[in-house]
Write a structure and sequence with these properties.
It is built from 6 helices and 5 strands. It is an alpha+beta fold and about 170 residues long. The protein has a domain at about 20-35 and about 80-165: Hotdog Thioesterase (Thiol Ester Dehydrase, Chain A, Roll). A 5-stranded antiparallel β-sheet has the order 1-3-4-5-2. The chain starts with about 25 loop residues before the first strand and ends in a 5-residue tail after the last helix. This is Bifunctional protein PaaZ. Pfam families: MaoC_dehydratas.
Length: about 170
């Protein structure tokens, strides 16, 4: 069997351009991410967070949740990070801000975080031609479908015509 000299098609993994975002659409990001003790301790110490609830198993056992909690900033970073390949890889200009970040239920070592994003709104930028503002609502659930984190994020993304022909 001979190999073709040229590929039939070339597919580039990228996020969505402004025009491709539709309000109300729900994106489910897979696979989920099972969080380990090592993840939590490494992230917590890398970010200089000395909170005993993340590091001290003995002390945490006597606290209301009875065990260490996954660092909520790790949960938020993983929640947003899981959306990148599907939504903003190579098409984002910048994160503009976060609002309404909540952690209604703790995430524990061994839990799996499943993430989804709903497009809340979008509008063209009035000050940056070729770019638009897309507001995303992220939700993270554990393996039992319990919501462990939510966040609303505003992003600045490219319009397709503004970057056509540019390497990705």
């Amino acid at each position: 069997m001979s190999e073709p000299s040229e590929p039939r098609a070339v597919v580039v993994q990228r996020g969505l351009y402004y025009e491709e975002f539709d309000t109300g659409v729900l994106y489910q990001h897979r696979p989920g991410r099972t969080v380990t003790e090592a993840d939590n301790v490494l992230f917590t110490t890398l970010t200089m967070n000395t909170q005993a609830l993340h590091l001290d198993a003995s002390w945490s056992a006597g606290q209301p949740f009875g065990q260490r909690l996954v660092n909520s900033m790790f949960t938020l970073a993983t929640l947003v990070g899981s959306s990148v390949a599907q939504l903003t890889q190579g098409t984002i200009v910048a994160n503009l801000g976060f609002e309404a970040v909540t952690f209604p239920h703790p995430l524990y070592h061994g839990d799996t975080l499943y993430s989804e994003t709903r497009v809340r709104s979008k509008r063209l930028s009035s000050s940056r031609p070729g770019q638009g503002i897309v507001t995303l609502e992220h939700t993270g659930r554990n393996q039992d479908a319990i919501i462990v984190a939510t966040a609303v994020r505003s992003t600045l993304v490219w319009c397709e015509d503004a970057v056509s022909g540019a390497p990705q």
